[in-house]
Amino acid sequence: MSEFASGSLTGKNLHLSFGSNHVLRGIDLHVEKGTTASVIGPSGSGKSTLLRVMNRLIEPDQGDILLDGRSVLKDNPDELRQRIGMVFQQFNLFPHKTVVDNVSLALRKLRKLPAEQARAEALEQLDLVGLKHKADARPANLSGGQQQRVAIARALAMKPEVMFFDEATSALDPELVKGVLALMADLAKGGMTMVVVTHEMGFSRNVSDTVTFMDGGVVVESGPPEQIFTNPQTERLQGFLSDVL
Amino acid sequence: MDALDQLVKTFFDWEAMAAVLPNMIMFGLPNTLILAVSSGVLGCILGMVLAVMGTSRITALRWLSRIYTDVFRGVPAIVVILLIGLGLGPVVRVTTGSTNPFPLAIFALTLMAAAYIGEIFRSGIQSVEKGQLEASRALGFSYGSSMRLVVIPQGVRRVLPALVNQFITLIKDSSLIYLLGLIASQREIFRIGNDAAANTGNLSPLVAAAFMYLILTVPLTHLVNYIDNRLRTGRPEKRQPDDAAALIGKGAQA
Description:
By secondary structure, chain A is of the alpha/beta class. Chain A has helices spanning 47-54, 77-82, 99-109, 115-128, 144-156, 174-189, 201-207, 225-230, 235-244; strands at 9-18, 21-31, 36-40, 62-67, 70-71, 84-87, 162-166, 193-197, 210-215, 218-223. In chain B, helix 2 (14-54) runs antiparallel to helix 9 (189-200) and helix 4 (77-96) crosses helix 5.
């Protein structure tokens, strides 16, 4: 089934340096429409930076980004980001706004929907993540897991073609991780194109269609999960897996 | 006891105080408030411009804001009021025919207040976590919209106490307008007290002026404490029904 109007996403030979620090050294990543690519690797390997480059929160020094096969580097970056939802490790909900206002803000201000319609759509999204009853609460009064589900609803409200998850469960208490991962798995099954930077090897292995292992700003190995987890080719991936599993 | 009586009479001659009270309330209080509120509002507007420039990614804007702030924070209020009031006074008189010193006094107070308020806003804006701007940009908002809708509202909230303090300073600094020469109906709290003190040779009217300032500033000081406290502890929000249910052990409904 395909609940989402998702598209494919490709990063080609992406380079990025901060001063003398060469963070991305020619990354290639292709995510087929409706599939989930997980990106794993040690901290500081450039995974989170890669996400920010692919939605142009940070402009790449070199390389190309294609959404549905078309280069988006010359597009207005703000319009590009409306097509790519992003979920952060620290949730980053807007604390001065209620839950439903967090979700409807972009609908009202960017989609220019009238307030009532934006609220209705936001409530619908909140219902999908099981938090409609928290619509008028403040984010601070929600648990971490609930906040992250609201953040997912906020990103989904814009009907993105691709969803990015940047270590979405790393800041959660262990008992709250499951609910968020289950929601992400539902999205994946629903046909959303997703790039998931994660330390959850179980999720990476069971939900994603491809796994990319990054280290030191390069893609060291990538392939289907069975191959990556059961038959790692490189020493670096073998070392990483024996550290985390 | 003569000396003590003398002292009491000098500072707390109730009759002398009562004599200036009507003028204080009719002219002094409103004029002080006009000066403080207008320069406070204008100072907030200009201060916000300075704060946005000061946090801009464009180096030249940051420098402009920096230089402005350094200059107007580093010069005594009395100097700015005299330079603006006496310097621009003749120009205003020639071009508009007005001899009212209020606009220039408000202008001078605004210039100074903006330097302080700009720094207050800047520190508030910079205290907002970077993730907030990032999340807003990731939704597709431009830098300007993100600042306006997400970052600045949070930053301003955090510095409300400092902002009220700045307003208290303005109430007190507004007394400096007397340097520009005021006709009777233009006098503010200090000038009315000072004139009466000079005429009677008794300081009680000036003490009355002090009381008037305290009536304005003490509630504001407590307002600062109240806001500060509420910001620290968070507003007491009504619990959601199922939170309450969870607390008393009944199953929370989804």
